[in-house]
Amino acid sequence: MPNIAVLGAGIIGVSTALNIQNLIPSAQVKIISEKFGQETTSWGAGGLFRPTAKFIQGVPEEKIRRWARAGWDFYSSLAVSDKAKESGMQIVSGFILSQTKVENPLYKDSVYSFHEISRKAVTELGFGHYKYVYQVTTVIAIVRDYLPYLFKRFEENGGQTEQRRIDDLNELVGQYDLVVNCTGIGSRSLFGDTSIFPVRGQLLRVKAPWIKNFIYTEDDAYLIPNGELLVVGGCRQHNNYNLNIEASDSKAILERCYKICPELKGAVIDHEWTGLRPTRVPIRIEKEILQLKKGRLVVVHNYGHGANGISMSWGTSMDAAELVKDALLSSKL
User: What is the pTM of this model?
Assistant: First the structure.
């Protein structure tokens, strides 16, 4: 029975742990993390399935499309099942606004529908200052439901959790047959990866039940229905580690969103959130063998998804689980 530790309890970590259990049922898997639940970056994500190649650099397109398809198959199957409410999967339609033509996007062959709308409709919707507007029907993951759902499945499979901070990898040598690293930005200090960096995001969740469709632009302005609330965002600030809510950012976000959605005015703010998207070029999914003071440590990495964390999480976790299986098999040869 292989003993495996997964470091990190966000969407990537829990998805990877669950896929390891699916692939290696005999494995004993433990998630170790300093932060769980609403303390993780994943908790605040908008959760719209709309993987974007622009934000996934350094990875072959064929691989990205495979990840996207795997994620879509998983999410959409939940969204139309009796687990929809429990898993936080919601079917949602909306509009993508762009000044450049969106050709063959990653999600085109996955989502329920994707098509350009007429100029008449664009004008009537108030989107006339954008050259191209597309109507898309996709799914969103309401993370406050989805993350607990994944944890429930993980624990039902015999998975364990431990809340603690790992500062020295030597602590894990001899304790586990293999360690999976899903620490995101934590990989910078724990594994010495200077390629990982934060892209700070800030958003608001507001009460606006009259807004049913999402609106997404290339101008850091988006609205995403999220259960009973509406996500209003956002910003992309590279290498900014500030986790404080900045009033100036909130004001700028609302001003941008009022322009694309005047009906947002009158919405009541429920809460604001900020988080650091762990970003790396490319996303790191690979095996590494470390020679440490206390001995050898086999590590499989899965991190650096940036703004595509939710969309890519299930597909990349399936690949990471395959690497875990291969590493365990090779160690027995």
Answer: 0.97
